[in-house]
Amino acid sequence: MIVRVWQRHPEVVVVLAGVSAALHVGKLSPAIPVLRDALGVSLLQAGFLLSLVQFAGMLFGLVAGLLADSMGLKRSMLVGLTVLSIAGALGALAEQPGHLLALRACEGFGFLLTVMPGPALIRRLTPAAHMQSALGMWGAYMPLGTALALAGGPMVIGLADWRGWWLLMAGLTMVMAVWVALAIGPDVPAAPVAPKARRKARTVQVTWTLRVRRTLSARGPWLVALCFALYSGQWLAVIGFLPSVVAQSGRFGSAAATLLALAALVNVVGNVASGRLLQRGVAARHLLGAGFTAMALGAVIAFADIGWSGSPQLTAMLRYGGVLLFSMVGGLIPGTLFSLAVRLAPDEASVSTTVGWMQQLSALGQFLGPPLVAWVAAAAGGWHWTWVATGSCCLLGLVVAQRIHRQLVHART
């Protein structure tokens, strides 16, 4: 049965590879309390451990995209999964925080090599009639991996300590690498073309310099990358600080861990829905507009000092509903943007480079978003002005979404 699924739908294997990479990003959060006791990891070092993956993406996203385009899509994913697996296994042997930091940086680069070729691989493997839906599924890899790590990490760490958690993630990633090797066909080199036809050819071998120039001189990659940054920075800030908000409220008790995982998991719904809606002809600008509007409204419900009437428990549930709205409908944005990245790349040979640039600015947003929200909360003496920071991102996101629509119209004419 499983063999039939991957033979008929190899794009599902690509999505699962992204999820296995995202597990390495999310595996740290549930392990931080144990790491602080076991290795003496300070709070500052824990912050660096959390942000090193984003820092690697912020510095090397475009480079990783270039590597993916140059070495081959499947080969890049296999190398990335292998690096993640080896770095994770070595991390389980770490005895000092510095060793774990260095290996975390290696995991960050392995993560990039794994996820950069994802959209281009899906484009290659999926029939045109189903490509939008498949790209919507791809957009769900990060929230799904984060939710699985938040849900499963505490249980595994309780049974096998953090080292067992690290080894389990390394083993799963190596299994995933073998699956990718078996399920996805070999990379197909682009056919050579005459020099006069290069500008019009969609598949052409180009140098790194030319590929970077093509990508960064086009408006489309900049617009989708900026839009992704405005989304990812606020999503990570809200979901990342949600444990602190829930702990301060003290209203959810033993159900807190499940509710936290659910807040990340519902983002998958929006991602998958975006692909299906795009497939049915819904305009990308409408999906982006709905996503940013829902995120703004959800943040107001979740954080604004509205003065809800009713019991404190009911108020807490209403605010949690705002977080679910923020995450679930906001999930329309990444699935839509991955589809747009494929459409707005300057040529087929630069799809992974465009995704790399989008990932680089997304990482910049994730690197800056949480400190911005934390600064607002510290200045206000609470979380009640968080919606101002996230709402500003949403407003800018709506402006960029309109520019993306104009770019699509221009590209068709």
Description:
By secondary structure, the protein is mainly α. It folds into two domains: 186 residues, MFS general substrate transporter like domains (Growth Hormone, Chain: A, Up-down Bundle); 207 residues, Up-down Bundle (Growth Hormone, Chain: A), CATH 1.20.1250.20. The chain has 18 helices and no strands. Helix 1 crosses helix 2, helix 13 runs parallel beside helix 15 and helix 14 runs antiparallel to helix 16. The protein is globular and about 60 Å long.
Count of domain modules: 2
The H-level CATH homologous superfamily of the largest domain, spelled out, is: MFS general substrate transporter like domains
End-to-end Cα distance, whole Å, is 46 Å
Reported for the largest beta sheet, the result is: none
- Given the structure, what is the number of helices? 18
Class based on secondary structure composition and strand pairing: mainly alpha
What is the fold-level CATH name, i.e. the topology of the largest domain? Growth Hormone, Chain: A
pLDDT averaged residue by residue? 83
- List low-confidence stretches: 190-205
What oligomeric state do these chains adopt?
single chain
Helix content: over 70%
Shape field: globular
The succession of helices and strands, N to C, reads HHHHHHHHHHHHHHHHHH
